[in-house]
Amino acid sequence: MKQLVFSVIVMFAVSAWGQAPKEPAKPAAPAKEAAKPAPAKEAAVARKPRRWNEDARHCLERASNTEIIKCAEEFL
After folding, report:
1. Other Cβ atoms closer than 10 A to 62
2. How many CB atoms lie within 10 A of CB 60?
């Protein structure tokens, strides 16, 4: 039991020690670049309504597994 606890502690210590150090914060960009609005097309594409709470059982009536998967992916 002691060996198990010791090995778990060692694993956590090694993983923490092996992580890369945090880099210092980069200087802030000028205010002119930050004030640019996003293009309208990208905003419209990014906002796709989620359908995860809708019923997808009608997809099971498809002929093949591939068609069922393609139909059901819309609900993820």
Report:
1. 14
2. 9
From residue 16, alpha-carbon distances to 9, 11, 39 in Å are: 11, 9, 41
d(CA 14, CA 12): 6
One DSSP character per residue, 1-51 reads -HHHHHHHHHHHHHHHHTSPPPPPPPPPPPHHHHTPPPPHHHHHHH-PPP-
Domain ranges, ordered by start, for the chain: 50-76
Residues 6+ apart with CB under 8 A from 56: 71, 72, 74, 75
pLDDT tens-digit series, residues 9-61: 888 777 777 676 667 667 666 655 555 666 666 555 566 677 778 888 999 99
Grouping H, G, I as helix, E, B as strand and the rest as coil, residue 67 is helix
